[in-house]
Amino acid sequence: MKNKNELKYSCLKTVCNPELLNFETTEELEPINVGIGQSRGIKALEFGLNVDVKGYNLYLEGPSGVGKTMYTKKYLDTISKTKKVPCDWCYIYNFTNPNEPIAVSLPAGQGKEFREAMDNFIKDIKKDISNTFNNDEFEREKSLITSEYDQKRNNLMEQLNKKSSQYGFQVKSAQNGIFMMPILNGRTIEEEEFNKLDDKTKQEFEDKSVIVQQHIMEAIEAIKNIEKESSERINSWQSNIALLTVTAHINLIKSKFKRNKKITSFLNEIKNDILKNINLFIAGDTKAPQNVQPNQPMSKTANQPWLNYRVNLFVDNSLTEGAPVIMDSNYTYHNIFGSLEYENFMGALHTDYTMIKPGLLHKANGGYILFQAKDLLANGICYENLKKALRIKKLNIENSVDNRSSMVMISLKPEPIPLDLKVILVGNDAIYQSLLAMDSDFRKLFKIKVEFEESAPMNVENMNSLARFISGFCSQEGLPPFDRAAIARIIEFSSKLADDQDKISTKFTDIAEVVSEAATWAKLSRKKLVTEQFVDKALLERIDRVKKYDARYMEMIKENTLLISTDGAKVGEINGLTIMSIGDYSFGKPVKITANTFAGKNGVINVEREVSLSGCSHSKGVLILSGYLGEMFAQDFPLSLNASICFEQLYNGVDGDSASSTELYAILSGLSNMPISQSIAVTGSVNQKGEIQPIGGVNDKIEGFFQICKMRGLNGSHGVIIPIQNQKNLNLSDEIVEAVKDNQFHIYAISTIDEGIEILTGVPAGKKDSKGNFPAGSINYLAHEKLRKYFDITKKERMAFL
Q: Is the N or the C terminus of the chain less surrounded, counting Cβ atoms within 10 Å?
């Protein structure tokens, strides 16, 4: 007779009817551009992106592989096209403080125009000034001015000679100054001849030379004034000529950018700088710089002032459509926040405003930027500086040289740029909760949480949407199309991933892997269409590739190295079900759990806990057993029991409470002395009231025990007991479903300990009557009587001791 708790084979897996899919192959479908089953997350995303208030940045939370980054990027690409294109940003030279370049904002596209206008200006002004001042007419005019002042100088020297001759000296002009020579007998004499004169004559000359020297000093001062006046007149004349040329070019550029005060001021400074350095423009690129100290590094612009007229087009949005959407994988500090580059110039590191480079935040300014939270947090300084930028709403560019370097350099301090963008952090819930707990700024700056689900309801709409995702993925990767039967298999696999018969998984990364592998098997078979047989093969091969440790466990059980019984019945022994996790692969396997009961006062003894192999959850589950035993059997006498529980041949630790019901069955078997069927394995948590609670990994656990039973030969007695709540999580292999259908394997879903012990022993559990007594011969009656016996034993021992 079939047990009331036994499940029908039709309840053991999700079956997708291909007829529900409204296509023949995925080639007919349009790729999907929206998330599947993510209505709440999408609603929060759309709202958060529309809040234009400081601090309303977004955190996208969800498990890896659900498509949150992909969907968000596509959504941002769509809405950004309707937004205003942000401004261009340029850096220009600061003539007042050269170490603080000036930031200039221009409408999109005008930054490039400004740069090109200034590049043309530099080229044209150099050419025009050179043509103007390097011709015969200019030289003639300059010679006339120079000759006029040369005549004044000659006249001054003639007057000086007349005065000097009165005192017996002749004055001559040389390249390095003016010198005087004594005159004797109508001719000048040299120093050797002067030294041969008598003392009286020499003294007379020396006395007169003081007067002559005074006249010479006065003449030198007058000559300097003449030369200065000459230079000033020439420079003024040159400047007046140059001013006409420069003003024409400057006014043309001013007319294009007349509303920008910074550019107007910049152009005025350029005009003054050109007039101040007109000689360098006349000389061209070959003139050497003046007044350079021997031990000082020479500036590149010392003899090329026009280099300071260039424009650094820092952010160019001329080709941007709408608001920018930036996503990158390089999370170095300078890639995010920009940098100052340096080059070696004459043995020293040199930088200037044209070497300021933008970062991702500059490029995203006025739009959106996505960061992977895990990668961003791995570089703590990047996260801290991002928060600082969001708080002050400005972007500063700092010296790019390593702070640990001992090298001291003069650097730049560019004017900060206003920051206006949405930052979207993408990560899982663990990171989100950690940031909330440990970072007070996080809540202030990321006020919108967008939750992405890892599963969606299994309905016709979502199943067809999943097919559209597969269609888009195949098109993107150049894979052959899938027929609808193959898609139905993928949907069934997706349901297993979701661990729920009523849902499909949204972990698109895992689904895409199966799609890729199924398509590869089809290609290897020279098929142009992926059918269900290739999906089945892909799923089978995925498991087979990583079964080394699973196979080793099977081998050890087959050789009886691991003692697992699958037939007969034993007192105090039961097959529990565990999950083994090795890297990215997990599998279920049975483990022998034993319980020995005897008189004493120590209660339930967890052997694993005694040797520090028990996790917190497992220890809690064991302690719950004492509560159940006390309420069930110790209402009229104290609980006097020692029950030693052990996971046999398990040496790497135990955690989780999914075996707590299994342990309780072993104790009840020991107390009642009723053997437990070894052909049935058990999983399930239990509370103090004897209610069975759901567990995880139910499919792997059943699959693991089934494989052992199959290896030893199915005989119709084998089966597994699971919590009734886990029925919806079942997605078992076709092999197990067929075995259940043929009554070779059984799966029982229970809700209480009493239901489970009856299946395991074939003996009624027994309910208390109105007087609190259990039916004679029931499991609970036998256990109760054994505990009473233990109490009597301990009572006698206590009396004997007294």
A: N
Structure tokens at 26: 């995925």
Tens of pLDDT, residue by residue over 539-560, are: 999 988 888 888 898 999 999 9
Mode of pairing for the β-strands spanning 422-427 and 368-372: parallel
Taking alpha carbons only, the member of 253, 255, 320, 283 closest to residue 92 is 253
pLDDT digits (tens, 9 = 90+) for 501-539: 999 998 888 999 999 999 999 999 999 999 999 999 999
More confident of the two residues 247 and 182: 247
Mean pLDDT of the 391-409 span: 67
- Taking the C-alpha atoms of residue 556 and residue 562, their distance in angstroms, rounded to an integer, is 6
Q: Could you tell me if 487 and 18 are in contact, meaning their C-beta atoms sit under 8 angstroms apart?
A: yes
Q: Rg of the chain's alpha carbons, rounded to an integer?
A: 47
Q: What is the crossing angle of helices 660-672 and 616-633, to 10°? A: 40
Please state, rounded to an integer, the average pLDDT across all residues of the chain. Answer: 87
Dihedral over alpha carbons 405, 406, 410, 413 (to 10 degrees):
40
CA-to-CA distance for 780 and 594, rounded, in angstroms?
Answer: 19
Q: Indicate the Cα dihedral angle 104, 110, 112, 115, nearest 10°.
A: -60
Distance CA 125, CA 607 (A): 92
Contact partners, residue 242, CB within 8 Å, separation at least 6 = 129, 132, 133, 274, 275, 278, 281
Task: Read off the pTM.
Answer: 0.77
Q: Quick one: CA dihedral 61, 65, 71, 74, positive or negative?
A: positive
Distance CA 748, CA 12 (A): 11
Name the nearest CA neighbour of 492 among 20, 6, 8, 7.
20
pLDDT digits (tens, 9 = 90+) for 771-792: 889 999 999 999 999 999 999 8
Q: Distance between CA atoms of 577 and 658, rounded to whole angstroms? A: 8
**C-beta separation of 180 from 215 below 8 A:** no
CA distance 212 to 14: 121
Share of the chain above pLDDT 90, in %: 59
User: 703 to each of 97, 498, 564, 709, how far by Cα in Å?
Assistant: 76, 17, 16, 10
Q: What percent of the chain has pLDDT over 70?
A: 91
CA separation, residue 288 to residues 152, 283, 705 (Å): 31, 9, 90
Give the pLDDT confidence score for residue 300 in this predicted structure: 61
Say if residues 508 and 467 touch (Cβ distance below 8 Å): no
Is residue 346 scored above 70 in pLDDT? no
CA-CA-CA-CA dihedral for 549, 550, 555, 558, to nearest 10: 150
Instruction: Please choose, from the candidates 633, 89, 64, 6, the residue with its C-alpha nearest in 3D space to the C-alpha of residue 373.
Output: 64
